[in-house]
Design a protein that fits this description.
The structure holds two protein chains of two kinds. By secondary structure, chain A is of the alpha/beta class. Chain A contains five helices and five strands. The longest helix of chain A is centred in the C-terminal third of the chain and has 14 residues. Chain A is globular. The mean pLDDT of chain A is 89. By secondary structure, chain B is mainly alpha-helical. Chain B is elongated and about 90 Å long. Chain B starts with a helix and ends with a helix. The chains are: A alpha/beta, B mainly alpha. At the A-B interface, helix 1 and helix 5 of A face helix 1, helix 2 and helix 3 of B.
């Protein structure tokens, strides 16, 4: 388990600057260190180089989609245990199933509550080995 | 003649220069306006984000900052729900932003009315009656935007006009469905009562949407298997397939004996969705019939419920529909 007093480092990837603003602002206010990314490729690079505690990924992103990033993360033994949340407007049951099949640990649909997202991120970080 | 040509060339060169100058000037002005608007966004954004997060910030502003604020309120409102969005809605109403956007619903330009109808939902504006009226706008873009915003406002009063608009084809099916899903469980009671409407198209739309909402047991929907209109019975059969409740599983087989083939076909498909394996013998007999729609649907349902039975049937007393379903089964595997 992660020590309770350590700053949680969160990778947030979304190609929509408004969503990125909202998520980053709330998480920073909540005491997290945020690493923003604007596409899937950038998110994967940050995940590999910075080793965040949690990742929050959009589904539809340029370069690599959220599920593709997760599959790459799960294939890389160095970061395979990174807890990942998909934050997406895709609400169909089949999408949720596909999201979890790709290896997501949590799934939150847009429109979302920034407070709820913050609590979910904290819960994912707390479960981290 | 020569001097005329020289003069004409000079006029054209001068005209080109003026035109090029005008384009460059226009580009310059657009760039300046964009930069200024970007600066306004940068000024307003952190204050608004702080306000959303609970800070006590005075957000009153004018001019370009006000335009940026209206824009950001709608954009953030679109991305959020819950307490933060409720705060945003209160702010929009307090600052008069909602009233400002509401006034655009009376614009003579369709795109402006559509943009306003769209934004009102994102802003969480107190505009349900106006948006309900906009469902009758002559411009389809406005009607669809209004339907979508009524969903975002989650007001059950909007259910009936949405279903009526869906039934008469004035709004897109997907937009109406999503709006009712956004209204959520509150919509179910209204939909229940609309299954008793005098208009068969409204009853069918209500049944279909109840299935999409998947809210559980609905005695009125169960009773609608006896609706005199086959379009309604088809919608009921499809809704049962999506609902997956015990009462749906108990009632659906009645529709396998419906006098209208289209209804029997919908019931067969829903049997597969509900996993009603006790209906396989009836479906097999339907698949062996020569009525295209029910036979084809029954064979495909069997492919889901009992592929071995289907394969066995194709080898003994099969039909072209059974063979086709077996072929599809093999392709999928």
């Amino acid at each position: 388990m992660m020590p309770a007093n350590r700053e949680v480092v969160v990778l947030v990837a979304d190609d929509d600057p408004d969503i990125l603003d909202l998520v980053c602002f709330r998480l920073e206010r909540g005491g997290c260190k945020v690493l923003p990314a604007h596409n899937g490729k950038e998110a994967l690079e940050i995940a590999r180089n910075e080793r965040p505690d949690v990742a929050v990924l959009d589904w539809m992103m340029p370069e690599l989609t959220g599920p593709e990033v997760i599959e790459e993360i799960r294939r890389d033994p160095d970061i395979a245990d990174l807890p990942v949340m998909l934050l997406t407007a895709r609400v169909q049951e089949s999408d949720v199933v596909r999201g979890f099949e790709s290896g997501a640990d949590d799934y939150l649909t847009k429109p979302f509550s920034p407070q709820e997202l913050h609590h979910r991120v904290q819960a994912l970080a707390a479960r981290r080995p | 003649m020569r001097s005329f040509l020289i003069q004409a060339t000079l006029v054209m060169v001068a005209f080109n220069l003026v035109l090029t100058g005008a384009v460059i000037f226009n580009r310059f002005m657009v760039t300046v306006a964009r930069r200024r608007y970007g600066e306004a966004l940068a000024r307003v954004r952190p204050r608004l984000l702080g306000w959303i997060d609970g800070d006590d910030v005075d957000l009153r502003c004018e001019g370009l900052d006000r335009r940026a604020l209206v824009d950001l309120l709608a954009r953030y409102g679109r991305a959020m729900h819950g307490e933060s969005r409720a705060r945003l809605s209160r702010l929009s109403n307090e600052l008069g932003v909602s009233a400002e956007v509401l006034a655009d619903l009376d614009s003579p330009r369709g795109w402006r009315r559509a943009a306003a109808a769209f934004r009102l939902g994102d802003l969480g504006a107190e505009a349900v009656p106006q948006l309900m009226a906009a469902l009758r706008d002559p411009d389809r873009r406005v009607r669809n935007a209004a339907a979508r915003s009524l969903g975002r406002l989650e007001n059950p009063d909007a259910v009936e006009p949405l279903v009526v608009a869906l039934a008469n084809g004035s709004i897109a099916r997907a937009v109406a469905g999503q709006a009712l899903l956004d209204i959520g469980a509150g919509a179910a009671k209204e939909l229940d009562s609309l299954i008793l409407s005098r208009e068969p198209q409204v009853r069918a739309a209500a049944a279909e949407l109840l299935g999409r909402l998947a809210v559980g047991h609905s005695p009125i929907l169960v009773a609608a298997v006896e609706d005199p209109n086959p379009v309604v019975r088809v919608a009921v059969a499809r809704a049962f397939g999506r609902l997956g409740t015990r009462s749906a599983a108990r009632t659906l087989p009645e529709l396998l004996d419906d006098p209208v083939p289209y209804v029997r076909a919908a019931a067969a498909t829903s049997c597969a969705e509900l996993g009603l394996s006790e209906q396989t013998e009836r479906l097999l007999s339907m698949a062996r019939s020569d009525e295209h729609l029910p036979a084809s649907a029954a064979a495909r349902a069997l492919a889901v419920l009992d592929p071995d039975l289907l394969r066995g049937a194709s080898e003994t007393a099969g039909s072209e529909y059974i063979s086709e379903a077996v072929d599809l089964l093999e392709v999928r595997q």
